[in-house]
Structures are given as structure tokens and as C-alpha cells.
Amino acid sequence: MKKQMIAGLVLVLCAAVQTHAQNRGYFNYKEAAGVLPLNQPPSEPLSLWYNQPSKVWEDALPVGNGRMGAMVYGGVSKERITLNEDTIWAGPPVPVVKENVSDTIQEVRRLLFAGQYAEAQKLQQSVMSPRISPRSYQPLGELVLDFGDVAKASGYRRDLNLDTAVATTVYEVDGVTFTREVFASPVDDVVVVRLAADNPGALSFAMRVNREGIFSVTPSGNDTLIATGQASHGDKHLGVKFASRYKVVAENGSTTTQNSGVSVSGADSAVIYVTAATDYNRDDTANPFTHDLEAVCAKVEVAATEKAYSQLKADSIASHQKYFRRVSLDLGEPSSEDTLSRLEGYRNPRSTKIDPNFEALFFQYGRYLLITSSRPGTMPANLQGVWNKDMQAPWNSDYHININMQMNYWLAEVTNLSECHLPFMDYIERLVPSGQKTARDLYSCRGFLAGHGSDAWHSAVPFGMAQYGQWVVGGAWCTRHFMQHYRFTKDRKFLEERAYPILKESALFFLDWLVEDPKTGKLVSGPSTSPENKFFIPGTKEKSNLTMGPSMDQQIIWDVFSNTLEAAEILGIDDAFTQDVQQALDKLAMPKIGSDGRLMEWTEEFAEPEPGHRHISHLYGLYPGRQYNQTDTPEYMAAMRKSIDTRLASGGGHTGWSRAWIINFWARFKDADNAHENLVMLLKKSTYNNLFDKHAPFQIDGNFGGAAGMAEMLLQSHTGEIELLPVLPEAWADGAVTGLCARGGFEVDMQWKDGELVSGTLRSKTGLPCTVRYRDQVLKLATEKGGSYDLGALATAGDAVAPL
């Protein structure tokens, strides 16, 4: 194995610029066979299904087990399955601190306070660490199955069953029905492809594995391919080394290897087992693992192949359903139309059709994607979850923490996927040492910070252009997820051992970073941006990005300080540090309302070159934050409402993730019509054929943010009350939901008809008291751990509630 690995790693990239993946059209698929559709929905209504094979990667169907992912095209003459493993990243160098810039930062602040924005931005840019790109998350490889010349296929359908996480392709050729199943087992840690024919001996195909870059494939025995390689960009950024095995177990027939491929002839069925291992050491990335990667793959493969296929599949399904079946959403009768037709119903500008059941499918698809791309022990979902076809992915498919990565996890707690949230928090904790070093070496500050983006190598350094890079609150934003996890789970050990320590590190940084605004005496952050927006420098047509105290910074810091103090109070901590945090919070500048009634994005009322900018950063305190609500801050709610109205009137929401964020804003505004209208716009303008989110290109955050917004329309609990159906649109007049989660450790089921609550159940996982609201009706409950409570009294305007 070691000799093979060395041989693979010394392969010259040999004209990487000429290789197939550099051809933009390579991942397109043209079916050689004539295909007649089955045009019949699968038995499981929670399925995406199609009458034709995928034409492009964005048509293909995703399966995953958190660590490994596969995109299934469903071809007839050829099957293409692109494969990923979540740690395959091109490597260093990464952005590092060039020098301590404390003195320069003081001068930049002086210039900004004096209104000398152009000079300040030029000076700040002079000390920015450079952006080092490309340095991308990369594919494991591509599995190609060639079935030879096929003239015509009938009865064709491909589908993805969200309940089982199995992608199935079925069709008939010359009277023989062929069935193909693909899934990624989280139990046995393999991607599995099963091919079967209903006539004995009718299955024949050739298998090969492709990948660009440092990569080699070697046959082993008569049924296995061994692939080894290393992530890189040409001969630069040598990163993670990997090995994978592709073993074919055929029933009857013959199996042979030749020319780096496997051929199967005259079989009844065949199962392909794909295993992968890398040398990535997440706890010490500078010291990769040194064990035999192929041996790791072989061990996993042996264990999987010793199981009967039926048991392998059943175990995978059971593991998936453990998470997936926690929540159900019924918004109407299933449709007999295929998924593309239903999506086209939204895209058609002449159509006003609304399909509530399809919207429920989209919601469950978001949950499906999180389960399959983020499981305990894996890397967190990146910009594309775990699915990426490109050697140089858009934005490197990295961890953008100026909203995108956070949005990936907005749905985790409320849609009952708390365990899927853990990889995100594991990763942020691994950023802390780098963030502490960056804070100390760059700014002479205590604590931890992280800029707008990072990746597998855990760099926390602000880098690139000042317009997006000089932003030090990315890590701070991420810390709110720790408190969010605690609020939903009430896990005191987590609060004490994980949430409070990282909140303290973030708060320490801001205690040193914040400075007094000489005009107001209030504490402000800066130099900083409002991601990734800009303004006209007053009196000129020149644009700038940097200010002191932009609204988003101040709101995130309010969140950090408030969360730190809340956690400290619960834990009984009252010391000099918490007193310093309280004093800083009391002195912290807050956003102002402008002369036009909008919430100000900056501390001055600048003219905006992009009034429809995709980021709506200054509404952070509305969502995902909890700083503003209709009861406590109605004047701010009105100002934010005017801000979003202006943004949308100027063309905002034109990217998928931005539109998803807007759904959540409208949900917090309690505006059902606008929340639903923006969900419709997300489907209409920002959704690919396989329901992946379209930035464009593909970014998975819009899938997660859209699902989170739908949950927020059905249940809210951020103000201290559990509010039932707070934002129910007319399109969802009849429905039911089970298993949504509320802060405090509660699960809620509801049923409604004609827009009115009919019944409800609350289950207490913590035994804490709670207040439940439905419109003007309020119930205060003293619960017991494990108890269930009938909420029907709210539906009938009663004043009593009985335990079930």
C-alpha cells in the first residue's frame, strides 16, 4: 500500500488544465438511450422523483452519511456517481498574521472617527493578510458504470426517498427490469450501490473510477479497484492524502479487472462497496495520521461485505429514521406529479399555483440534507454540505462564518436535530487556539476571534480585501449556537464545559477590542464592515466599507455579552470578569434609527450604492438574534420593517441564502403573507431541479435557512413563551406538525383546520415550567420530565390543561 500511495502522490498533475474536470460541461450527462417514463410516483410520498436521468450535476440526487456523500445521476447507458469525503481539502499555506497591527488599528480608528474614510480604508488594506486561493474542498472521485449500447428504455423513474435515504433508479430494457439502489450507510460507513435485474444473468457492466489531479487507480484481485491520491492545486497546496476501495460482489456471472477497471458479465445482481480513509487529523492538522489508509478501508469493507445486503440496508435506514422521523409536517394531500413538474409550477411566471405539500417536502428535504451531511463525529456541513464536484469549488466550498455556515444550522434545534448541530460546535472549538493566537499576535487582545471564513486548517486570521475581510465578529456569531443548543436542551454540563468557556473567550476579546466613540462615549467595534456592503463617502462618489460601530457588530457583541452573563448567572459565577462584561454591555453603543425611519446599518446615514444588497446584516438582532421583538422594542421593529421593505423594493433577496434569511425575518415580524411569499420566491427563483439551493451557483445554506424559516412560521419560543402557529399563512390553512422543539426542552405537536388550532400536545424533556401562547390565549404549565400535556384548551379558549 505504501508503495502505491507514494506512486500516486508523485504523479505529475500532467496537464491538469487539460483534464476533463476543467471542462465546464464535463459533469453534464447526455443519455444515449431513448427513455420512456414510468410516470408513476413512488409509494413513499416524501420522495423526490423524476421521469428522466440527470442532465447536469444539479439534477442528480444526494445521499450521505455525514462523512461521505454521493450524487446519483440515474443514467441508463451510463451511471455517474460523484463521491465526496468530508476531510479532503487542499492544504497550506493558509492566511497568517503578518505583523502586530495594533498601532495601525489605532490610526485607522482615528481616521474613521474623523470621517476620513478613504484614507482609513487604504491604510487598513495595507496591513491585511492576503487571501490565499484556491485552496478548496475537493471530490473523492467519480464512479462510472457503463452498460454498453442501450437503444431504448421504458418504465423509467429515478427517486430519492427522504424517509430511507435511498436513491433508486428503475427502468426496463428488452423486457428486463433493472433496479439500482444507492445509499451511504452511517452504521457501516460505506457508500453502497446495488444493481439487479429481474432475469437471471441479465446484468453486465464495466466500472471505472475517475478523478483529476494527484490520483492513481490500481486493480486488486478480480473485483476491486484501489484509488489513492492527495488534494492539491497542481503542485501547490498539497493537502489531505486519501485512499478508497471499490469492491464489487456479484451474484453469479463473472467479474474481472483490467485496464484499471472492473467488468461484470452475466450476473443476476451486484453490490459495489465504496470505502474511504484520509490522513486528516482534525485535532492536530499539522501532524497528519500515518496509519495505512488502504488497510483502514479494507477493514471497513470486510465488515460491510460480511453483512447480508438486506441487513446493511435495514441498518442504514434505521439509523437515518432515528433522526428523520422525529418531525412530520402535513400541509395537504401528496401530488401524483413528478418533482420537476411541481417545481415548474412555481417557476412558470404565468402560474399562480401554490402546492403546500410540495413546500412540506422542501422542508423535510432541508432536514434530510442536514442529517446526511452533518452527523456526530463528522466535519460540519460546508457551503455545499458534503457534496462537491469541483476541484476548485466556488468560494472553495469553505466555512464562511459571516452568515453561510451559521445558516446551515439554524434548523438544527427547532427541527429536532440537536445531535446534527454538534459537528458545527466541535469545529468552532477547534478554531479557538488559532483565534487566541490571532487575537494576541495581530491586535494584542485577549480571548479569541475569527474572521469571515475558514476551512479544514482552522485559520482565524482576517484576510483579503478590507471590504469583506476586516471583520472580527465571525467567531463571536458562532458562539451564540452554543447558547442556542443549551436553551433547547438545558444540558447544564454542556453549558458549563463548552458554552460558557467559549463565550468567555469571545467576550474577553471584545473587552479589549472595543473603544469609546469620542462623540458619544459609547463602546464601539472597529474598524469593521457591514458584510459585504459599502457606502458612498459623504460629499463624494467614492465608495468605502469601513466604519466604527456598524450595527451588526454591535448586535453580535450584545449577543455575546448577554449570553455570557446569562450563562454565568445559571452557573453561579460572579467575578471580576462578569462584572467587566456587565459594565461593557451597559456602555455598548446600539444601532440608531435614521431620519427616514429605517434602522441604520452604520453610525451615519450614508447613501448606498447597492440599496438592494444581498446581506441584510443590520437585522441580525431580529433573526437569528433575539434582541428585538414586538413587545419590548416596537420602535426598532418598525424601523427594521422599513429597512427590509426598502431592501426588497431595491432588488434584495436575489440569492438563495438571502431569500431564506428574509423568510425568517418576516416570521419574526409575524407577517404570514410576506413570509410565505418569500418561500414561494425561494422555490421560484433560487432552487435547482434537485431542490438544491441556487445562490447561484449551488450553496446549501438556502435549503437549511428556508426550512428554518418554515419552522419559525409554525412555532416560536425566543421571547420566553412557546407560541403556537404564530405566522400561519392562508396557503397552509389545514395541516399538522409533530416533533418541533421549543426552548426549555419541549416538543410540540399541533393540528389545525381553516387556519385555527384544533389540537396540540406538549412533551417536556426537562420538567421545567413553561408558558404556551396561541393568539391571545396563554397557559402556564408546571411540567414533569417525560410528561405530556394536552394543549387543546388553547384551541377552545379554555383555562385548564390536563396531563395526558
UniProtKB/TrEMBL annotation:
**Where's the Glycosyl hydrolase family 95 N-terminal domain?**
48-281
* All copies of domain Alpha fucosidase A-like C-terminal, residue ranges: 716-778
Keyword tags: Hydrolase, Signal
On whether Signal is a keyword of this UniProt record, the answer is yes
Source species, domain of life: Bacteria
List, alphabetically, the InterPro entries matched: 6-hairpin_glycosidase_sf, 6hp_glycosidase-like_sf, AFCA-like_C, Alpha-L-fucosidase, GH95_cat, GH95_N_dom
Q: Name one GO molecular function term.
A: hydrolase activity
Q: Where are the coiled-coil regions?
A: none
Q: Where is the Glycosyl hydrolase family 95 catalytic domain?
A: 309-714
Q: Where is the signal peptide?
A: 1-21
One Pfam family matching this protein: Glyco_hyd_65N_2
- Protein known as: Glycoside hydrolase family 95 protein
**Species for this entry:** Aporhodopirellula aestuarii
